[in-house]
Amino acid sequence: MSSTASGVVPPRDDIALMAGYHSPQIDVEVRLNTNESPLPPPAAFSEAVAAAAASVEWNRYPDRRATELRSRIAARHGVVPDQVFAANGSNEVLQCLLLAYGGADRSAAVFEPSYALHPHLARVTGTAVVEAERDRDFDLDPEVAVALIDSTRPAVTFLCSPNNPSGTVSSRSVMETLLSAAGSAGGLLCVDEAYAEFAPHSALDFIDDETPLAVTRTYSKTWAMAGARLGYLIGPRWLVAELEKVALPYHLDALKQAVGIAALDYVDEMQARVDAIVAERERLTAAMAETAVQVWPSGSNFVLFRPLGLDGTQVWQQLVDRSVLVRNCSSWPRLNGCLRVTVGTRPENDRFLAALAGILP
User: Fold this and answer.
1) Contact at 8 Å (CB) between 179 and 206?
2) What is the CATH architecture assignment of 43-263?
3) The pTM is what?
């Protein structure tokens, strides 16, 4: 039955056929499916947030340009504030990028399997999607990537590094190759670095005020602030200026700006959490490699694996039955039978390993 009332104009045909992007929210004891930080922010941060909330002038609109937040983010990354665009999570950043540079008669390039929001947001903004495949190890063949860019000349090329859901980190040479190809085609390269702090290098090294490169980051993962929905982009000043044109007025509320500023006072504590998660990731990967699963190396806070000889969805359900929730990727294109587990605390990871051992042959 149609969801549109009689006589009311229907949604765009392409929207009507879409499914939204959702992660299952199930009541379990161990939740390892959405790549959240397993550790909360430090107590002092929570106290700083409470103080910030008390100082908000609720009857006034927030700083439209998020001046102080952008200045603090810029200082952290060695750029100027006009090279920073902040929004409600990196997903809104990506949406604004496509609102400004995508649209009718334009395309966005993706390399599958990768973050599902890139093609989804492209289609929502009326942007065509062109794609090429990663290899069997989920690495990106630069020749394949360049061939796609040269032949389709996309307005935006997306590179997710570390890649979600595989955890693959693209080499600096691959980044340079794609950046050159995208620029030659008259387009932008957007490197999605939601998990960059867990990886050995970053595309931020290539940022300047001339190069058509945008790098997106989020507070959700390493800053343990998934509940805040705050992300940002680093890029040339001319690109940031275009994003400001398509963002809604006062889109970043006053409390969120204050929370983002407060978090930047706890860089050392954040780094300690990153180091602990990386150590647990290595322990988890090594333990899984000793079992009947195929596991891929990860530069992120999650690990992709495929149970051998078993149906992935059945393994996922059996983990849920043991009150452990991971992400079921087994029905996603090119990920037949695969599951993705977020790196949790040591007790959570042990609980996952024990549950998995009880399922595998």
Assistant:
1) yes
2) 3-Layer(aba) Sandwich (3.40)
3) 0.93
